[in-house]
Amino acid sequence: EHKNLSAPKCVKCKSEKVRKKGFRKTSQRGLQQRWICNNCNTSFTIDNGFWKMKNNEQKVCQAIDTYYEGLSLRKVRRNFYKYGNTRISHQSVLNWIRKYVYLIRKKLENAKPNLYGHYLTDEVIINCKKENHNFGLVMDKRSRYIVATRYTENAFISPEHSIELWSRARDIQRPKKLTSDAHMTYQDAFNRVFYTRYKEGRVEYEQINHAKTGKYNYIMERVWNTLRERIKVMRGFKASWSAKLLIDGFFIWYNFVRPHMTLKCSPAKMVGLKDGSWLGLICGLTT
């Protein structure tokens, strides 16, 4: 019996006995193939990540990409109207970003990157609601892949904040070495997350003390400069949950979409993950 490998499963009963049943006409996304289930008679269209979206896939992905390339929400709106005669509101652009960053971030929780094992960690102050909040991350040095992030509404961190961040990175892959600055809480946090009396699994710890050596963690400073360049046009965030979501979206873009100038490819490709575009990331949500 011939089987249509491109046919989806029924959304209701999961049966593979489905057939095509014309098209669903949309104003912006063209004709969408409609299917009907021979088992339960349910009619449906395939969810390719843009189900029930008014605008087409290219416009949504272009809006998200130009936002993370550096345009403000209102400049993205003006850009669409100027060059495509497309009227969208800046709030629509923000809603698209929040929706898809949330879904992609959830999907990437199951990612298994093949990391090189030398982690760098640091934190930076983020302005939100005219207050100073703290954002921290862990990066794999060789691949420049952002392993884990942490956002807190406190301006100053405690050992518990670093424990939360480093434990998340450790659960993805235990490092061979960790490099940080000389923050007073780091040593305690390192002992509680990585200490072992066994030689196997021991993690080397390096602290860069600028006051004594005059050196900085230059790779991490370059990452922060890239982030500051992006959020400068935002003039601060209005809500901490939104700030965390938008910054995580920036690092999804950093890991998967933006080619790294030094690596000549994306960090995701360096660690064996599939990189590409926002369209590929979003369509991958349904696979």
List the helices and strands and how they pair.
Blueprint: E1 18-25, E2 31-37, E3 43-45, H1 57-69, H2 73-84, H3 90-108, E4 118-128, E5 131-140, E6 145-152, H4 159-172, E7 177-181, H5 186-194, E8 204-208, H6 210-213, H7 218-231, H8 240-257, H9 267-270, H10 278-283
Parallel strand pairs: 4-7, 7-8
Antiparallel strand pairs: 1-2, 2-3, 4-5, 5-6
Helix pairs in contact: 2-3, 3-8, 4-5
Which terms would index this structure?
287 residues; alpha/beta; five-stranded mixed sheet; three-stranded antiparallel sheet; 10 helices
What's this model, at a glance?
The chain has 287 residues and is of the alpha/beta class. It is built from ten helices and eight strands. 28% of the residues are buried.
Describe the 3D structure:
Helices cover 39% and strands 20% of the residues. It is built from ten helices and eight strands. Strands 6-5-4-7-8 form a five-stranded mixed sheet, sandwiched between helices. β5 (131-140) and β6 (145-152) form a beta hairpin. The protein is globular.
